[in-house]
Design a protein that fits this description.
Blueprint: E1 16-18, H1 22-35, H2 40-43, E2 53-55, H3 58-66, H4 82-88, H5 91-98, E3 117-121, E4 127-130, E5 134-135, E6 143-144, E7 152-156, E8 163-167, E9 173-179, E10 189-193, E11 198-202
Antiparallel strand pairs: 1-2, 3-4, 3-11, 5-6, 6-10, 7-8, 8-9, 9-10
Amino acid sequence: MGLQLLKTSPFATSRTFPVNSIASSRFLSTQVRRLSFATSSERAIFRSNSSSLFAVDTNRLQRRFRKGIVAMAAPETVQKSEEEWRAILSPEQFRIIRQKGTEYPGTGEYDKFFEEGIYNCAGCGTPLYKSTTKFNSGCGWPAFYEGLPGAINRTPDPDGRRTEITCAACGGHLGHVFKGEGFPTPTNERHCVNSISLKFTSGSS
């Protein structure tokens, strides 16, 4: 038995490395660390056992790191007073990010925006979403099918009807997540996010 990779995976390649060699063991350790930055749907393609061969597209991984497409998980906590947030954010940003408001549908900067890069928290700059997880849901707000590992917290609304999503680092309000709507995505989820809660960074920068 060997490691099976989906051909559509960003990690797929024809290069293989025996796990029992010293050089390949070091290589494997490096790739495992890199995989800790991948999304859950990317990590889910890997199935292995103790005698498997490890295959990975190192060139593709290096390009992704150079472009800044991969972001750190488990962000550090950012704590500020209300006065400090008001000084940093615009009045509309403060209303939505800190007071859990909602922008009008179809008005956000990133609703129909599909450049390659990373969407960061507009409040604290923590990376939240990869552009490859963004899709056109037609709902009037930016839609993503998953966030970066550890970047998004989920909290049921008091009325139990929806689940709020917030930045795990600063607690800034992003929007809500909905499940089972039937969109053709790997997770069958829609993260409905206010554009004003996000700050996009181009992958080519």
